[in-house]
């Protein structure tokens, strides 16, 4: 199929109007206020709803909130999360009522797409997205955050303590039997 094109007129054949139009754009930007940020001294203020890097958090008692249910690992689209649950005996070091604490918990920040699915799916509220945008490392190995690094960066979160509440409820029910 041959497409017939209409021939260019004299004004369209000249390059000068196109060059002048581009020069006008250049002049317009030349006199605008500069928006360059001097990064280390000036920090970017993140907008509301910004999804940063995921980190593990501790409760007020300093215990790991994660019980290695592996829902975050399952829902992660790029498979950036790797959880190794404890052996068949279970690890009850942090809380007496907790079923199992993760033996290893790793997030590969090079693969993470900061989607926030891990935070949404976590039943224990153990993963939170921080308002952090400058993740740096000198090697690939540095960008794989292990459990200790994730807990140190995540800090303590004052949220619901399910295990503590269940223990208090059972203690209260033992002290005050319900009369029917």
In CATH, the topology of the domain at 54-162 is named: Alpha-Beta Plaits
Give the helices and strands as they follow along the chain. Answer: HHEHEEHEEHH
Structure classification: alpha+beta
How helical, in percent, are the residues? 25-40%
Provide the β-strand percentage band.
Answer: 5-15%
Count of helical stretches? 6
Q: How many runs of DSSP E, i.e. beta strands?
A: 5
How much is the average pLDDT? 82
Distance between the termini: 90 Å
**CATH class descriptor of the domain at 54-162:** Alpha Beta
Principal-axes shape call: elongated
Name the poorly predicted regions.
93-97
Quickly give the CATH architecture of the domain at 54-162.
2-Layer Sandwich
- Give the strand order, joined by hyphens, for the main sheet: 2-3-5
The main β sheet shows up as: 3 strands, antiparallel
Write a structural description.
This protein is of the alpha+beta class and 180 residues long. The chain has a domain at 54-162: Alpha-Beta Plaits (2-Layer Sandwich), CATH 3.30.70. Helices cover 28% and strands 9% of the residues. It contains six helices and five strands. The chain has a three-stranded antiparallel beta sheet. A two-stranded antiparallel sheet has the order 1-4. It is elongated and about 85 Å long.
């Amino acid at each position: 199929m041959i497409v017939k094109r209409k021939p260019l007129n004299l004004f369209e054949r000249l390059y000068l109007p196109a060059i002048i139009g581009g020069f006008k754009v250049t002049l317009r930007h030349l006199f605008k206020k500069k928006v360059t940020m001097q990064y280390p001294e000036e920090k970017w203020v993140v907008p509301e709803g910004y999804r940063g890097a995921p980190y593990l958090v501790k409760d007020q008692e300093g215990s790991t909130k994660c019980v290695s249910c592996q829902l975050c690992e399952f829902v992660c689209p790029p498979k950036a999360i790797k959880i190794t649950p404890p052996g068949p005996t279970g690890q009850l070091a942090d809380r007496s009522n907790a079923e199992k604490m993760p033996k290893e918990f790793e997030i590969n920040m090079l693969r993470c797409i900061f989607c926030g699915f891990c935070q949404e799916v976590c039943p224990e509220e153990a993963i939170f997205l921080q308002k952090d945008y400058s993740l740096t490392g000198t090697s690939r190995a540095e960008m794989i955050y292990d459990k200790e690094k994730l807990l140190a960066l995540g800090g303590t979160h004052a949220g619901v303590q399910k295990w503590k509440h269940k223990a208090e409820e059972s203690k209260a029910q033992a002290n005050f039997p319900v009369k029917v």
